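User: What would this chain look like folded?
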Amino acid sequence: MAQAAEAPAGRGSGAALDRYYQQRPAWGSCADGPRDAAGRAMDGAGLQCADLTVPLDYAAPSGRTITVAVSRLKATDTRHRIGTLLVNIGGPGGPARQVPPVIREAMKKAGPRYDIVGFDPRFVGRSTPLDCGWPVGTAWFSAGAGRAGFERQVALQKSLAAKCRSAGSSVLPRTHTSVLPHVTTRNTARDMDVIRGALGERKISYLGYSYGTYLGTVYTQLFPGRYDRVVLDGAFAPDDYGPRMLKGSERENERALADWAAWAAQRPTDYGLGRTRAAVLATVDRVVAASARRPLRVGTGTDSFRLDDTQVPALLLTATADDTDAARASFSEQMSVLARAAGGAAPTALSPGFAASLRYLLHGGSEPSGVQHAVLCGDVAAPRDPRSYWRDIESSRAAHPLFGPMTRNIGPCAFWDRPREEPTQVRHDAPALIVAATGDPRTTYRSSVALHDRLPGSRLLTLEGANRHGLYGRYGNTCVDAEVNRYLATGRLPSRDLTCVTARRTD
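Assistant: Here's the prediction, encoded as structure tokens.
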């Protein structure tokens, strides 16, 4: 019989949760009908899928329930099977049912020894959905060059919060008011433990990227003793996580942008952005300044867009998290389009990828919106007075004129109901392997070091000189991949902290 849950943080009792822990997945096809191409591809990759039932509110386990969609790629080396590896790719709000085959490939010889389990966290993907119905794909924008842009942001972010609170669906009828308090990381960690129990495992191993590192840390604190091997890639220290988690990353983003500019300057005939790093950065400044004077017009026909100074910096920030040649080439092509628009050139057709990015940023997409901020707002309270954000933005402009108004801008959490639970505190050591790039512009290296300090039994695997967020199995650094795979295969952490170099990366 699976081990029933303890009552972490006063959330329900073990006996009341038994029915969730004792359920068994009804494994079957991942496709929801013949038109589900993604599901058919998952079936073709050998995945099995199931839905597990979890309580909406762990403090009331006999009340309303929701489902969590789970996938499994079974171990093929059953003679040497190690256990189950649960994966989260970040977000918050990143679906992961589809990722086990990719993770198995990255794991090399260790992969066949694990059941690799992906899951769509509560309210994400094929799990019980939540859709705020936002008219934009994301709430991450800049405050712009002046007070007018900031006031537009205040109005937008307030409207997004109100829209999410009043939204509803056939699955979650009426409004989300009664649901939003339970869209939290702590509840997702509790769902993970139900998954563990439903799989019949005494312990699970875990691989988490970005936000997934915070989720993994929360799991170790709520359920000490129920995990085996833990890899945290691009880690948040708990004190750095929350609605304003980009604040403090300005220097890393500026460095990543400058490194990209040096790359683009070596290819002046390809992109026309400048022949020196300084010249390319000056082009970026001209683009942002032009968007502040008048929105830039890019694209044609149904893929025609207007970008102002609250939106252009969001594109720049998005592009700084990957320093591979392919990512830098794509960013350079986008900047060429924006530079021509800033110079008054007539719009031309956009590449499909750039058009899709702008469509999502400015108009949203077909996928549900708002889950990321619902989790952030449900986890950690944000300052509520818009004036405090404006003062913070203004104080940052001299040192960080481009990214300060972006990382310190107001968001929908300023208008959200306060969280029901306090943020998780690190009170238990966890012998995890923390993977970090020194130039990571999203979860800074400083944050990974801080988490390492809070978990003295952990080890830090550092990649020197990379402006990259997310390394293991994604970046092509053979040193990083080999060290993670050694740990997953043996269960033994390195005897000391280790450092890899970018020279071992292959694009």
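Residues 108 and 504 are 17 Å apart (CA to CA). If you want, I can go into more detail on any region.
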